[in-house]
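Example 5.3 — Na(+)/H(+) antiporter NhaA
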Amino acid sequence: MNQTTPSTPPPGQGKSTVLSRGSYAEALRIGEILRKETVGGALLVAAAVIALIWANSPASDSYFALRDFKFGYEPWHLELSLGAWAADGLLAIFFFLVGLELKREFVAGDLRQISKSIVPVAAAVGGVVVPALIYVVINLTSPETLRGWAIPTATDIAFAVAVLAIIGSHLPSALRIFLLTLAVVDDLIAISIIAFFYTSDLDVTPLLLSLIPLALYAFLAHKYRHFFGMKASAAWVILLPLGVITWALVHASGIHATVAGVLLGFAVPVLRSQAAGGPDAGPGLAEIFEHRFRPISAGVAVPIFAFFSAGVAVGGWEGLGSALADPVALGIIVGLVVGKPIGILGVTWLLTKVTRAELDKSFKWIDVFGVALLAGIGFTVSLLVAELSFGQGSLHDDHAKVGILAASVLAALLAAAVLTTRNRQYRAEEEREKVDADQDGIPDVYQDRT
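Solution (predicted structure tokens):
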């Protein structure tokens, strides 16, 4: 999005900065996304809490019976349990939005400039590699659990943003954008890991067949993007069936079906002129789809997935202790709570040294550390990878879920301890010095780059 400008500054100007403000249009758009994800995060947490209570209540058998209830059409490999439908089907909507968001940022957003994208992207990579290495080190003596190395690599967008909305309402916008960029990029990395490392029994025929509806979907979306923009109902009638067919064929191929969601998101055209804020540009098809699908993802798809995935029978304090002693849970907790901040903060600091750039004057390194701690909230994608690693309902999967939940809560508490204090200071500064706006309605801070 808009986190860095590490290029050499012209003579007479100061050093380049990292995590600097981007365009005002970008700040407004990201602010809208964050507000929607905040609501989704609250629903996600509520669904997970309900699942945990139900799974550990006297009526726990009914929860697992509901989760494992199967229906569908077996010849198409679609006779799945409700939990599998949520993970393979509903979560594809979430990853469709991830694909849309990434394409919009790299085509029409501030990240289309390499100088502005290198730091958040590199930091996201660091936030993936370091937790994975920590998990591997902790599980070296337990080869059967090494398969879960990717579990602590992803940040949950909705959960992290919901926490940030509660504790960091006055933090600089660049920090929020940095967090969102990290979460989106490492979700892309996570889905790539799923595609390449968690695919078994690959069936090439349906995979090749999936390219036909995908190509037709992309062709129609680009050829008639203005028509679909004006006639949204036509997109549902024509493009949605093609998307469902693509999803079904990718699922039948053995590749996790959420990959189809990302590919379909990438296939939607993005109008570059929108980023410039042209008054006649109008909303593009990507913007229309994002507006329509985000409430479905945040309000329905992700909470339902959390409900069916977060329910684990802990077995009291003894069972909780046994789960936390498992190298799987320990690797996840240390990876998310310690590895994420080290990877993100370390890479960001290293790039400032390599590029000889300075941190933007609007905030401090302690703010970046707080956001890096917040990135340790790994929930939705981590739960998905845990199921793919060990199989739903297995002992290691249950222990992985305990580790994910414990790490997410711990990361949220540590981030809150750091960012709440910083938020008070920024709030006091805002009260002392109100942001002025010109007649064009754009705050001066987004226009003054000197």
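Remark. The first strand starts at residue 4 and ends at 5.
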